[in-house]
Amino acid sequence: MSTTRFLTGITTTGTPHLGNFVGSIRPSVAASLSPDVQSFYFLADYHALIKCEDPVRIQRSTLEIAASWLAAGLNPDHVTFYRQSDIPEIPELNWLLSCVTGKGVLNRAHAYKASQDKNLAAGREADDGVTAGLFMYPVLMGADILMFKAHKVPVGRDQIQHIEMARDMAASFNHLYGEHFVLPEAAIDEHVATLPGLDGRKMSKSYDNTIPLFSSREQLKKLIGSILTDSRAPGEAKEVEGSALFQIYQAFATPAETEALRKAYADGIAWGDAKNTLFERVDEVIAPMRAKYEDLIHNPARIEATLLAGAERARALATPFIRELRSAVGLRSLAQAATAAKPVKAAKAALPAFKQYREADGKFYFKLVAADGRLLLQSTGFDAPKEAGQAIGQLQKDAGALQALSARLAPVDGVQADEVAAALQALADAAAAA
Ligand code: TRP
User: Fold this and answer.
1) Which of 177, 285, 348, 408: CA 20 to 30 A from 401?
2) By the 8 A CB rule, do 37 and 5 touch?
3) Residue 22, CA distances (Å) to 211, 314, 401, 416 in order
4) In this structure, which residue's CA is closest to atom 14 in ligand 1?
5) Which domain CATH number covers 282?
6) What is the model's pLDDT at position 58?
């Protein structure tokens, strides 16, 4: 196999904090150094417009995020590092994908549903304040990913659904117009820590509990000093379990250093001393990057040039690819049409698909989704992924298994049994024909 292509985007709405560093910047920069990967990292500034209507903040955040990644060691000669809005082929692809994406699929996107639920809970209309941009968010993300034929997309768990949607868009498009897209997969790094913030909840801008990655030394000391601890006095043994301070330390220290702090906790280290230990350790990691960051942030024109060079490299791929895609869907020069007409495969009826996933309750589920995105079948929770897989296997083999499995299926509003049976039959027929 050739090299694997990784691609990920960073929405440009905020100032990078220690949680972003540990959870995304540091592992991504490390991954980009591996010889058998090709990395595409970009600033998702079109996506930022969905969440932020402050132009100054968008521009500032773009600068800060670019400077942070570069200061953290991202090498723009090895990584294709660019700004989404410098690639006009992306919104163009966005439209092509919009035309193969079921509206029903987007109706079920978590981010959109969460906005609706919030509205309904507050007694407002479901779509109150929901822009078409928010609704279309997953399609734009699909365009980001499919444009560069990414195999792996490193994201947080909250983004897995979007990657699955991108995969489905690619499959639908390929099915209709021939094999053009690579089917991407989410890459979730189990070893990467989620950092707690000042108040012990996940460090996040929305909780206002962050420590900016490039605070000054003084500011960093002050912020670390304000991390929530319990009221145990010096000399009293302290719990590492649930200690935000300890968890942050762990993300910056070696295993041996972490063990030493664990012992100090048991021996009753004073909170003030523990905070100082944490501060010095974090600062040791940040200080060399801070100098580079300061230098970069004061030279915005240099960052601009880096991003434009990255965009040029990205467009060297995007421009010919969008040409291919336009031709595939029939957006063709009339002058060439007579000679360039390729026989178009008769479009087969799109097929329903099984999806397997895990819910917050820790159980494993599957569902059957029609080609237009409508939910046809929904399982109850299984304890093991294998059990869910076996049930799918039975259903794929024989529509009659519906009866046998009825206890493991949850009712779906407005779906008739014979429609489900017909969908299963279509799948069985397609498998037999393949
Ligand atoms: N939606 C992603 C986030 O909020 C950012 C993003 C935009 C992205 N486009 C992408 C991530 C493409 C991966 C691939 O984290």
Assistant:
1) 348
2) yes
3) 12, 27, 47, 48
4) 8
5) 1.10.240.10
6) 97
